């Protein structure tokens, strides 16, 4: 996404005013196409030991949950004889506490605490600000589209904006680690709230890839008392890139000779591959295996799926029906989209859902989860199913696979109704916001 969008933006601006920068040795430096490719990768993806991210000792809570935790802590530390009386007191004060939290006093108090924290950090950042004099000038626009939560440089956005006059644009893909921490590695979930609070402080504009992500972001900032920068929704391009067919692997050439269903996604718990496995297991146990096409998972294994993958490998009912493909090239992905009978996407939550848009842009029918932003992608051109309902997934998959007239009806609906979103359109939407920011 970062590469596609930056390439399209570069086409819209004069080369003298559009430049790339990277974070290297504690400062931003310009990067050019002439830089050695190995050096470029080392700069863009430095070793984790060089990162300076400080994780919070405890997870950051909403105002309501923080108050509950505080009351619980006081109650637990009290002598047991006093706990009953203190608990009754809290209940009697509950209406007043709710009014207090909803009032401007608490919001102003939270803002003052955050301002004091920022002031303290600023004292340690003077040298960094001086270092940026050679790269940034007042009025410059710094845009970050990458997954910058994993690097230390996002902490510098506030100071560049506040004290160097640089206009900062950042991007919000989703708040899944905050909303559904159970689907993420602990480290990610623990830092995301503080990350977005820092991003909100340091951004003139936050780009959101869906209306759902924008709502989630604004609700989180309201709940935690964070800053409220401007936001803008732009949609990702879903035009599947062309590539050379010379590099198509023999395994993919074999797969496309027979009917198959395609699911493009990293294999992780949130993507919900398991509901498809359960649906296939159910259909096979009902004697319907002969009518099932192969189910192809395209994506690398992620976190927390080892036991699930073992289930697939060892299950005699679904043996050889579920295929996993890793390291698929752009050309191979397009071949798979083109040859698939239809596509599935049962994710439990998404900030957008790019594979759904890609499948629709290729004219493919999609059976899809109805959660998060996915209805924004597919509108009424997608067959939606509750991501937890393996029985209905089994029914809809089997009908789509065996009822050719039904599938053709949906294909016609997609081909007539879907208008692909391109990366050039995404770049134009972003450019309009950059231009407004420059004029402001």
Short description:
α1 packs across α19 (423-439) and α9 (186-202) packs across α10. Mean pLDDT is 85; it is low at 40-57.
Strand content of the residues, in percent? 5-15%
**In total, how many beta strands?**
12
Round the Cα radius of gyration to an integer and report it. 25 Å
Q: Find the CATH topology of the largest domain.
A: Rossmann fold
Total domain modules: 2
The CATH architecture classification of the largest domain is 3-Layer(aba) Sandwich
Give the C-level CATH assignment of the largest domain: Alpha Beta
Structural class: alpha/beta
- Biggest beta sheet attributes: 6 strands, parallel
Number of helices: 19
Give unreliable regions as ranges.
40-57
List the strand order in the largest sheet.
9-8-7-10-11-12
Which whole number gives the mean pLDDT? 85
Shape type: globular
Distance separating the two termini: 27 Å
Explain what the structure shows.
By secondary structure, the chain is of the alpha/beta class. It has two domains: 2-59 and 107-237 and 427-439, Rossmann fold; 245-420, Rossmann fold. 50% of the residues lie in helices and 12% in strands. The chain contains 19 helices and twelve strands. The protein has helices spanning 2-12, 37-44, 63-77, 80-102, 104-122, 126-131, 157-164, 176-179, 186-202, 211-224, 250-255, 273-285, 306-314, 330-339, 354-361, 374-378, 390-402, 404-417, 423-439; strands at residues 20-24, 27-31, 141-143, 167-172, 205-208, 230-233, 260-264, 294-298, 322-325, 342-345, 366-369, 383-385. Strands 9-8-7-10-11-12 form a six-stranded parallel sheet, with helices on both faces. It has a four-stranded parallel sheet with strand order 3-4-5-6, sandwiched between helices. The chain has a two-stranded antiparallel ribbon with strand order 1-2. Helix 16 (374-378) links the parallel strand 11 and strand 12 (383-385). Residues 40-57 have low confidence and may be disordered.
């Amino acid at each position: 996404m970062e590469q596609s969008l930056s390439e399209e933006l570069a086409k819209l601006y004069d080369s003298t005013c559009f430049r790339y920068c990277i974070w290297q040795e504690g400062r931003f430096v310009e990067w050019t196409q002439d830089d050695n490719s190995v050096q470029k990768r080392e700069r863009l993806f430095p070793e984790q030991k060089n990162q300076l991210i400080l994780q919070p000792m405890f997870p950051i809570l909403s105002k309501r949950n923080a108050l509950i935790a505080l009351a619980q802590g006081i109650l637990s530390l009290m002598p047991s004889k006093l706990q009953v009386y203190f608990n009754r007191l809290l209940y009697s004060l509950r209406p007043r506490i709710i009014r207090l939290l909803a009032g401007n006093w608490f919001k102003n108090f939270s803002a003052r605490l955050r301002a004091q924290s920022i002031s303290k950090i600023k004292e340690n950042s003077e040298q960094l600000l001086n270092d940026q004099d050679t790269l940034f000038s007042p009025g410059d626009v710094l845009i970050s589209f990458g997954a910058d939560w994993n690097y230390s440089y996002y902490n510098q956005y506030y100071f560049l904006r506040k004290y160097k006059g640089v206009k900062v644009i950042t991007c919000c893909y989703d708040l899944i680690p905050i909303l559904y921490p159970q689907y993420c590695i602990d480290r990610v979930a623990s830092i995301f709230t503080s990350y977005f609070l820092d991003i909100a402080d340091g951004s003139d504009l936050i780009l959101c890839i869906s209306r759902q992500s924008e709502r989630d972001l604004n609700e989180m900032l309201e709940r935690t008392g964070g800053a409220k920068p401007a936001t803008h929704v732009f949609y990702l391009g879903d035009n599947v890139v062309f590539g050379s067919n010379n590099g198509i692997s023999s395994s993919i050439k074999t797969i496309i000779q027979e009917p198959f269903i395609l699911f493009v996604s990293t294999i992780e718990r949130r993507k919900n591959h398991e509901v498809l496995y359960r649906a296939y297991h159910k259909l096979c146990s009902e004697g319907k295996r002969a009518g099932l096409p192969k189910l192809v998972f395209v994506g690398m294994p992620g976190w927390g799926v080892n036991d699930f993958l073992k289930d697939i490998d060892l299950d005699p009912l679904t043996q050889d029906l579920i295929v996993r493909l890793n390291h698929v090239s752009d050309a191979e992905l397009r071949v798979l989209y083109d040859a698939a009978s239809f596509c599935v996407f049962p994710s439990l939550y998404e900030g957008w859902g790019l594979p759904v848009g890609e499948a629709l842009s290729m004219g493919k029918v999609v059976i899809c989860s109805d959660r998060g932003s996915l209805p924004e992608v597919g509108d009424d051109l997608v067959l939606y199913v509750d991501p937890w309902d393996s029985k209905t997934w089994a029914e809809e998959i089997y009908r789509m696979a065996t009822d050719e007239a039904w599938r053709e009806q949906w294909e016609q609906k997609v081909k007539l109704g879907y208008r692909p979103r391109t990366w050039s359109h995404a770049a134009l939407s972003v450019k309009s916001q950059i231009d407004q920011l420059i004029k402001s």
